[in-house]
Amino acid sequence: TQYVYRFGGGVSDGGSGDKTLLGGKGANLAEMASIGLPVPPGFTIATTMCTRYYEDGQTFPDSLRDEVATGIAHIEGITGKRFGDEADPLLVSVRSGARVSMPGMMDTVLNLGLNDATVEGLAKVSDDPRFAWDSYRRFIQMYSDVVLELDHGRFEEALEIAKEDRGYYLDTDLTADDWRALVGQYKEIVVELWGKPFPQDVHDQLWGAIGAVFGSWQADRAKVYRRLNDIPGDWGTAVNVQAMVFGNMGDTSATGVAFTRDPSKGDNAYYGEFLINAQGEDVVAGIRTPQYLTRAAREAASAKPLSMEEAMPEAYAELAAVFDRLERHYRDMQDIEFTVQQGKLWMLQTRSGKRTAKAALKIAVDMAEEGLITREEAIARVDPQALDQLLHPTLDPNATRDVLTKGLPASPGAASGIAVFDSDTAERRSNAGDAVILIRTETSPEDIHGMHAARGILTARGGMTSHAAVVARGMGRPCVSGAGSISIDAKAGVMKVAGREIREGDIVTIDGATGEVMAGAVATVQPELAGDFGTLMEWADGVRRLKVRANAETPLDCRTARDFGAEGIGLCRTEHMFFEQSRITSVRQMILAEDEAGRRAALDKLLPEQRSDFVEIFEVMVGLPCTIRLLDPPLHEFLPHEEAEFAEVAEAAGIGVDQLKRRAGELHEFNPMLGHRGCRLGVTYPEIYEMQARAIFEAAVIVAEKSGEAPIPEVMIPLVATRRELELMKAVVDKAAQDVFADKGRTIEYLVGTMIELPRAALKAGEIAEAGEFFSFGTNDLTQTTLGVSRDDASRFLGAYVEQGIYARDPFVSLDVEGVGELVELAAERGRKTRPDIKLGICGEHGGDPASIAFCEKVGLDYVSASPYRVPIARLAAAQVAL
Ligand code: ADP
Ligand code: MG
Ligand code: MG
Q1: What CA–CA distance (Å, rounded) separates 406 from 428?
Q2: What is the pLDDT of residue 578?
Q3: With respect to CATH, is domain 254-355 assigned 2.60.40.10?
Q4: 18-22, 185-189, 231-235, 794-798: least confidently modelled range
Q5: Facing residues of 625 across strands?
Q6: Which domain of life is it from (predicted)?
Q7: 574-719 architecture in CATH?
Q8: What pTM does this model have?
Q9: How far is the C-alpha of 356 from the C-alpha of 343, rounded, in Å?
Q10: CA 122 to CA 90: how far, in whole Å?
Q11: Is 780 labelled a binding residue?
Q12: What is the whole-number distance in angstroms between the Cα of residue 110 and the centre of ligand 1?
């Protein structure tokens, strides 16, 4: 088997289709080289080697030595330099690169091939000793950190002291002799910490670095990242060895990172940062504040340091041409790394750029309108889940803000929460239920768990492409980075800003769209649903087959749902209406009544209230179907708890408190989830369902008369297991309908159907379909009853279940397609057999989950129903599965 694949100098053993084998970075380096872009030559050791390395007890096969030697010879042939040559040494970078990008997770070593002898040669051929010694100190520091795993703080400390001693401010102030002296100190630190001198043999250096890259695949922070992002551990990483190009060769050299479009807002404008006389890591590490790429961006920020467009017009023009070339080639927004060595541009990386949901939308719509991609591709490009970011409120522009400072708008969205200064605390406080804003000087991969736990992230240092910014955008967390005027004392749990102190636990607000940092909480407003969002939704609606409804029971939720494009109500839970303050006493009186007459007396009081609920809902949903579920929960959920409550109910019912308490005791159930609930209430107390049905039909008539258009009630009987239950309940509903219609002299079209939420109902769906006109799969309960798992108690063990691969994902979030799904499929099939035009839908959490929606499409359901905020997600997901 071949493990080494070359690129550069007219050779490309691989291409962008080889990400599995070569990792994303390697595959795209090969691809860029093959389309003639300037890529320093190199080779990629395949991901299959990583897997084999671990299988073989972290050793390399002998054959790899020969292959690597061939790879080095390839680079030597093109560059005309030799690895380890004391006169004119070839230097290389050793870079990791997994199949998908794992920002900052894996380690890179630059300037490899320098030692005490080759550094002199480099100084001579470059005629620039300062550059040579700067590169050597960088190499020792990085190699010691990444490969030898020595404390990098010691090296930084030595550099800081050297700068202070000489009165310097920037790294670029150091001279050749300063760097040479520092290299001497660095080597002493290595001996002190490692017990051995810094490796001088360039081949030892190379194999050390290759081993370290493979080794970092199993580092804790890489494992955490994989777990959070569902990346399998057996994918492995590739290693890229590539000729160095130098951005630190003086003022005609530079390094930078860029996006072909704005990854935050999506505007079609080049976007990025660069640093003159620097090497790659300097930009991301936030050592110096980077400069803007374009003049327009610099002017917009009224920044002084010249943009690349102004400082290096020729290299910039070449770069802009490469951007356009890359976008046309990949047909997507690209995230790139480049270096300019003495005026010559080199491409070091390209990948499809991470972007915010807002940018994803805009870029997809723009590219379709530019003709770069099709509308179908545009639909497929936007992650439905990510829309979530756009649908939530942003800061009210009119609310007063106590602005403390302003940083960079690194990731949009607004968040308020308590200030927390380290990631462990962030995780702990978040688990305890607090909304947390994580505030750090800068973030590193060790902060991933804290960033995940936080509502928002604020950093004092780092640019728009810093670790914090990149990771926050990926996670959809609002982020303000580089808020330079704050100073943080994490140990003391306090930050100072604008002469004020914010302590751990104080509430702060960040606005990732403007970069503002505020004290206290700030009011929010609803998002804008027109523009690109509206356009993409329209395209999506044009291709999807599944209808999308909402689970909603208040007029406000119904309004939101309709604004978000819901095509009806899939689940209106009537019990929520019973809890309202004005009604609960009547509800309790009804429940605790000793007989039918007592119940009816209470129900008579509830009827007008319930009717007005439905009037409000029908008014919003006029012309659309509304599935209304009759009372479902066990009655004891409504029982009084406090003495005063008992007294109130007793008075309303005209009975004694003791009698009431005895009756309440009788209602106690051992396992209420499987107890006296659902249609069992209707079977035992038909007058409850009769009242609800009456309220529904009276409301429907009122609204039909008022608005001229009738609502379409679909009355749903919960927890049915047998045909007979549904027959009995349907008779109650039909009777109420006939009575109301006769009374009012007007008929309304309606359906009566059932929820399929018990395995028996799914199995006997053929019979049940004879008695009802629609099924709505209540997959929350169907999951509970099929798996025998209580959703409310599952958190204790479900984590372990998912971790050990028993269930791939939380079955209450994403439908257990194999098990519960089989019941759904079977019920749909059997139901259709006896009633070919039966209406089929799904309600419950799964209705808004893209993977579950794909399943619903496959089974051919008519609609999915999701919570109002998830309606757009469901619309897009339904379109994607129809493509
Ligand atoms: P990461 O995945 O963390 O971005 P990279 O392998 O891309 O790691 O490299 C880190 C930095 O070093 C980047 O800025 C990159 O552009 C720079 N770099 C990598 N290889 C070279 C090289 N051969 N010459 C110059 N700079 C390089
Ligand atoms: Mg890195
Ligand atoms: Mg990179």
Answers
A1: 28
A2: 84
A3: no
A4: 794-798
A5: 712
A6: Bacteria
A7: Alpha-Beta Barrel (3.20)
A8: 0.79
A9: 33
A10: 9
A11: yes
A12: 7
